Amino acid sequence: MVKQERAARTRKALIRAGAEVVARDGLAGTSLTTISARAGVSNGALHFHFETKKALAQAIEAEALTTVRQIVRDAAAPGGGPLEALVAATYRLMSAIAGDVVVRAGFELSDDPGRGGGPSIRREWQVWVEQALWRAGQDGWLAEGVSAHDAASAVVAATVGFEVLGGQDKAWLSEAKVTGLWDLLLPRLTERHALVRAAAEAGEAATGSAAADPDTP
Amino acid sequence: MVKQERAARTRKALIRAGAEVVARDGLAGTSLTTISARAGVSNGALHFHFETKKALAQAIEAEALTTVRQIVRDAAAPGGGPLEALVAATYRLMSAIAGDVVVRAGFELSDDPGRGGGPSIRREWQVWVEQALWRAGQDGWLAEGVSAHDAASAVVAATVGFEVLGGQDKAWLSEAKVTGLWDLLLPRLTERHALVRAAAEAGEAATGSAAADPDTP
After folding, report:
1. What's the pTM?
2. What is the DSSP letter of B29?
3. Is the CB of B25 less than 8 angstroms away from the CB of A180?
4. How far is B193 from chain A (nearest CA, A)?
5. B60-212: CATH superfamily
């Protein structure tokens, strides 16, 4: 039991150390030796958990994906509309990318040639945004003349842009940037923008402390 | 003279081959030997032109930057407003990223840890977009309640998002995506959106053939 716990802790430390190195240098610039040294474990222990860099990258992506799925689930407040969930999810996602190196590395791995296939986190985020805006259109939330498809592309592109630019300058991941984006987009997307904004803010206030520090278990 | 011409041609071939490999694998995953083989020149010739990967990366960025500066200069039609220039520049930039591997690699190098400092192309694009929207605000083009700063952030983030997502799927760099973004943003940014759109389209129609194929010298 104690041995299993220690193994789980070591695995977690390796994923975190791997994420730190990947976020800084990319997968190709990363060596397994650097990662084991950073995690404070032997090379042998690292190889016990992850035989290759690709295996470690996949573990980082899997853990990041779990967090992102939790974020979009939590953003869908009971009784809330799809636009409210979308707005809340963007705030929480940017906060997680800023504060949780595993989420950041998971996103960055999305277009890494060495990641080894499978659906990426950026792709999953894109599908979720498209569904949220499609539902908003179906439920009559979108203003006349607004295409759910175009709106989804704009939101996906802007959030991926924040994520990428945030790698160099964390200001791109700040609440102010997300607010600026929605100040611009919401009045065009929906006539009920004040309502969506107020509901999303009320939801954030109710759960804000949990979202503010994604590193807290 | 012939020798100088041959050296210039070799240098150009190396920059192009380097850009192709960098765009595919990133700088860390790239070896100078792969690049010289791809360009069809000896390792010695490569080292004559570029002593290190960093030197080659800087040459790629410099050439890409020259193209991007030309794009934003050309987008500013004589007598046209700043929003018209901004709209035209986004079409031309996405077309260049899709069709010119040196421009694509130059953008991708913007957040490469091995690029070796100096202002990046993404950064220069950001400054230009901020200036265009600041001028639009000064000249009375922006609708009431629209912040030039927020608008610039949204446009920069969305275009960087298109660029990054376009590395995996070229549809993100298509005219349709850029049109979708402006269909969403322009009616919010300015009351004169129909005018801006018509002027930008007229400008494109006049010079469209040049922008459509950025690889043509």
Report:
1. 0.90
2. T
3. no
4. 13
5. Tetracycline Repressor, domain 2 (1.10.357.10)
